[in-house]
Design a protein that fits this description.
alpha+beta, about 40% helix, Arc Repressor Mutant, subunit A, 2 domains, homodimer, DNA-binding, Dna Ligase, domain 1, about 130 residues, about 20% strand, two-stranded antiparallel ribbon
Chain lengths: ~130, ~130
Amino acid sequence: MKGKRNTLQKRIVTDVFCSMHNHPSAGMVFEAVQERFPGISRATVYRLLAEAAEEGRIQRLKLVDANDRYDITTGKHYHVTCRCCGAVADVKTEVDDGRLTDGAEGYEGFLIEGCHVEFVGICEGCRQKQENLN
Amino acid sequence: MKGKRNTLQKRIVTDVFCSMHNHPSAGMVFEAVQERFPGISRATVYRLLAEAAEEGRIQRLKLVDANDRYDITTGKHYHVTCRCCGAVADVKTEVDDGRLTDGAEGYEGFLIEGCHVEFVGICEGCRQKQENLN
DNA sequence: GTGCGTGCAAACCGTTTGCAATCGG
DNA sequence: CCGATTGCAAACGGTTTGCACGCAC
């Protein structure tokens, strides 16, 4: 059995992360954690999140034009990013990755194996701010 | 009329970039430029490429898990990234962005406006290296 | 007691920026 | 001439890392 220790920091980071449902970045988790445990190190939060992702307990999302986000849902699904504030949310869709991939042909001898689909839009808050300007 | 000057640096960066067909990053263009003009500043290359993209003369590509790349083709099309070496190439496909976008529904009041599709695969060179190992 | 996990600070990497010097028009 | 453009170096932002200390087991 792996000699993983159950440290206070790990418990706090896990707790705080699980209470956030905004697909937070490591920095956002760090800020939230600081409120409950001001002494915690930024490096520790980054390390614990990366470790959790490597162990498959959470998912590390790579997004275009945004820092990596962490997702409590580990299964494959899609995301939308707010073009104003960068917020991230889940998306309900019927995208068929396999079909996209099969229908694509790479130039220059590239072999296509998969694809990444990501949506862009605007979140509720930013939409309301926009309307208030008019 | 815009007071744009035709400097030596601009001519060189444009020339070198146009002779590269690998969807290079700014850093890659800088390295290539240095061979012909060792005195050029990194900042200048970054600035000239960003400027060209803003003026629509070239396209700045945002990719997942890679630095921004520059593309001599300004029209919309798709790309594939090599999962081994990060090389980028164009993709021939029939993806219908509009259909993907229409078929998606965001949670938490998100309004979905568009989508980003990007392919992952393996380039010819890396494929051959892999085969040589077996 | 042992060695994993932490805190700290520095390194990292690609990119951007402030500023003085320079050069194109 | 004069202001756009350059070079330099420093700042940036998010992330990772080396190392000594300290705590979980």
